[in-house]
């Protein structure tokens, strides 16, 4: 409908005899619903990977990294080992319109990545690689043959959510939403969260304020004696 109205405006500017754009009413969209994990659900998810194996160590590092950095899956899969500064606990990624965004790691996430890299014995550049390959062939493999895909990460998160008995249909986006709601519940202000999420408008960030609603009664009771 928006496209049609734009087309009619274009025709008006060309002095064409046409239907007025204002005669088309736009359907009001429902409020955006955000799916997120509770603290208990997050703990169950984080405890699902078997960190005694290199695959489990990798998977936990990925899950924690997405949750604590607000990374998109495409951004995570494109990372190479040289991009990450584990001492400073930060790294930079290319953002929209060729901008560069600095992303901060938690101490826990940095430690998980370090543990994973220490278990690897290869020449490959990607930060995270697949391990369902024969060790004899690893030296002849190229970087892009081993780099994880978005499809792989999505399925991996779903697999662990089922193992953790989480009935929600979660994805990497769910972890990113959980990051924002965790910050809000911890008392972070909306403007700071907007900066960390790189939202151009505060209106986009306000979708997460639903999590503060249960706290309103507590706040009212605390200050209104």
Note the main attributes of this structure:
225 residues, mainly alpha, hpI Integrase, Chain A, two-stranded antiparallel ribbon, 11 helices, globular
Descriptive report:
With 225 residues, the chain is mainly α. It has a domain at 39-170: Intergrase catalytic core (hpI Integrase, Chain A). The chain contains 11 helices and 2 strands; from the N terminus they run ααααββααααααα. The protein has helices spanning 2-13, 39-46, 54-69, 73-77, 107-119, 143-146, 150-163, 172-185, 190-197, 202-205, 213-223, and strands at residues 90-94, 100-104. The protein has a two-stranded antiparallel sheet. Helix 3 crosses helix 8. The longest helix is centred in the N-terminal third of the chain and has 16 residues, at 54-69. It is globular and about 70 Å long.
Compact summary:
By secondary structure, the chain is mainly alpha-helical.
CATH class descriptor of one domain: Mainly Alpha
Instruction: Briefly note the structural class of the backbone.
Output: mainly alpha
Taken from the alpha-carbon principal axes, the silhouette is globular
The description of the largest β-sheet is: 2 strands, antiparallel
Q: Into which percentage range does the β-strand content fall?
A: under 5%
Major sheet: order of its strands? 1-2
Task: Give the helix proportion (percent range).
Answer: 40-55%
